[in-house]
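ok trying this again, last paste got cut off
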Amino acid sequence: MKKRPRGRLVLEDGTVLEGRSVGAEGETSGELVFNTALCGYQEILTDPSYHGQIILMTYPLIGNYGIAPGDDESGSPGASGLVVREMSRIASNYRSGISLPDFLRAQGIVALDGVDTRFLTRKIRTGGAMRVLLSTDSDSSDEDLILRCRQSPTLNGRDLVKEVTRKQTQTWDQGFLTDLDPRENCPPPRDGRIPIVAIDCGIKRNILRCLFETGFDITIVPAQTSVETILAAKPKALFLSNGPGDPSAIPYLTQTVHELIFKHGMTTFGICLGHQILAQVLGAKTYKMKFGHHGGNHPVQDLRSGRIHITSQNHSFAVDPDTLPESITITHINLNDRSIEGIAHKELPVWSVQHHPEASPGPHDAMGLFQEFYERLI
């Protein structure tokens, strides 16, 4: 078996770890975040919300079921790099097309294994998220790599949405791929389909599938699309998608959504970054979390019903509860740290959630949110 080249992981605090290259050769940098999911690495790597970040998987063995055609959440990699404890050399899955290392090399994603992921996770939990550089460059010194790491940009104040949003308006008409997908609380396509516009901030394909299966006709527009163009599509509602980066760095989108809601009375539902954008539109502020929420099994309580949902999470920013105006009510909270997971306007048909119902960690706990969106419009 071919010996894998060595690589180095360098943190901005000067920590240097050696590992083995299991992806593309080269160099990449970003913010290091740990993800606690036990599986779903393909969906995680192709989620545009991870743009500008390098993923550290806490589960020790990654890659054992390979890569399945059709499971990508976007048309290109979202994450800037990958760090795992052990990369499986065997991919056993009847749906697998290629192995994870082959996928990483084909997509140009730098990845390392043989790294102490427990040490790194504890460091991030204690000190907070920090910049990291992965490199297979054997000629540069540790000091050179540390310098390049410290010169790399942070997420604060960066508009990453403009780098992942689609370039032109498109429609979406695809439902779930297989019978294994979560149909229980997401009914089959309806005869009376409802037209909506989804603003693409880095939207995941499974969100679009869930919306389509629920009964929506979906027009997807780039994040920079004007109010006039959105209204020309004659939508009955607006959907704000997930996406990467600092929500305070995209004022153009906040202004667009503000006009659509307060001038044109648009019913609006947001997920993840869409939730943060909506909060800003309604007068709240957001803040950078210490290390964010990334992974599965996050308990979220719906304060309206008291029910607890097991959710999937992926965000480094959150809504500041101290800045919420009186017109907003908190609908969901995270039971791990009491952070806001959902809000709604007390009078307007506008609401959002921070977690990802389409990721189905429950597996069906939060799918009813799409149904709620539909029923508010019929």
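PB: full thing came through this time. The chain has a mean pLDDT of 93.
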